[in-house]
Amino acid sequence: MIFDSGHTPPERRSRTSTRSRSHATLKDFSLSALVTGFVSVLVGFTSSVAIIFQTTQNLGAMPGQTAS
């Protein structure tokens, strides 16, 4: 019975050096990727804060309570 899981057995995998992997990782970085990551984190954080502020206002909290 032959079972093909779709994976290459360890003895047939190419051995990639650590140096070439780190070079490939550095090659993936770019200014646009950095800016995109920063913007997505910023949008995620600010949307969470906006939801919390809106919820506290809907519950009748005073602005001073919301800020604390």
Quote the beta fraction.
under 5%
> SSE string, helix = H, strand = E?
HHH
Please compute the radius of gyration using only Cα atoms.
Answer: 24 Å
How far the N terminus sits from the C terminus, by CA atoms, comes to: 67 Å
How many strands in all? 0
Biggest sheet, open or closed, and with what strands and sense? none
- Give the overall shape, derived from the CA principal axes: elongated
Unreliable segments of 5+ consecutive residues:
none
Average pLDDT rating? 79
Helix percentage: 55-70%
Number of discrete helical segments: 3
From the helix content, strand content and strand pairing, which structural class follows? mainly alpha
What does this structure look like?
It is elongated, with a radius of gyration of 24 Å. The chain has three helices and no strands. It is mainly α.
Give a topology summary.
Elements: H1 18-28, H2 31-58, H3 63-67
Please sum up the structure shown.
By secondary structure, the chain is mostly helical. It has helices spanning 18-28, 31-58, 63-67. Keywords: Membrane, Transmembrane, Transmembrane helix.
What distinguishing features does this structure have?
68 residues, mainly alpha, elongated
